[in-house]
Amino acid sequence: MHPTLRTVLAGAAVVALATACTASDTDAARQAPAPSALSTATPPDTVASAANRAAPPAQAADAFAEPAPGIAVRPVAGTTVHRDFKRSYLAMDAWTLYPAEGSTGRPLAALVLDGSNEITSAEMRIGRSDGAADVKACTTPPPDAAGRADTANVDGVRTTHFSSSDAAMSHFLSADSYRVVQGGACYAIDLIIAGTRPEVYDPPRTPPFTAEQAKAALASMLAAVHWTH
User: Fold this and answer.
1) Mean pLDDT rounded to a whole number for the chain
2) 109-119 as b/e, with b when 16 or more CB fall inside 10 Å?
3) Of 221, 176, 175, 215, whose CA–CA distance to 71 is shortest?
4) Predicted TM-score of the model (pTM)
5) Helix H segments across the chain?
């Protein structure tokens, strides 16, 4: 074969081979799937976790609240809210545990410990009076108070605190009381444990909870009190 012809044929073969390889690469590129967007994005679980961390915790609605400004109570597990004070033989249903004659206050709310009955009950009562005489005498302990009064903070507000107790006809009552003037009104907060001596029943009755359990529950109720502004 003539040398020139051999050179031409060899060049043509090289060109054909290169063309075939290029076509093969192009077909492979067409058949390969496109990259998934999820492969480069943050996984959904991670996004949800980040959102949960960034979001502020939900605030539960108050169990009781006056229109601002006033007093409110956050929910307390294991309690029921009542709007009256008619549950104790020794504790009257007035706005405060020891109302003065002619007092004009009103009950606001009572958080009653679940399980309370006639043998033993525990509740926190909150009452209010706008009467001038009640406001003037608000922080003066009543004659029924036991020992000397002191002060205690309720949601950062200093209140007058005193204790008291009573017993009659097999019934008993003990209380820790808090008094404060806020917004021109007198507020009475009474933590009350009351009931009947179980041994007077035949057979003796079993209280729904112990005195220690009742005191712990009442402490959690007081901690839930706050002031609205």
Assistant:
1) 80
2) bbbbbeebeeb
3) 221
4) 0.73
5) 3-31, 44-54, 132-136, 211-223
